[in-house]
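Table 4 source record.
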Amino acid sequence: MENVINEYKKDTESVYHTWFINNDDRLKAFRTIRKGLIKVISDIEEGTFGNDFKGSSLETVVTAISEQKQVFEGAAHAFFWKPKLRIPDIYENEVNQRAFGRFLKACLEATNENKIIAEIHKLNSLNVKGLGPAVANILYFLHPTIFPPFNTAIVKGFNTLFSKK
């Protein structure tokens, strides 16, 4: 395992170098996404969020996330409104939409991981359909030292490395 990690770190084209090391654009994106989430929260609190992803303040945030290299390439897909599946259920259900807004606000203001984890459990207890994968990407941009980047390839790689599922 140590050899694999060292080879990965030596590869100047690896995500380790292009994503994590000396990347000022990435730092700017974090600020942009945080500002955008403040707008999402405000729209939800004011009742102006709407009932569709397209054209919403959330679309602006998720587009910024999706532009962050191949790691988040499909991030927007999780927030697309899928009427037949009724997911994610933040577009038709105002109670769920407000819970999502409270969750984002609490996580944005959180100063420790216990508070964030408590908020995740609180949101999860509401069984809002379709928010899990979508929220995972947002949490990374709010608290990158607590939540790692998340996508299917990362999960598959983790499962392969550690023989887990």
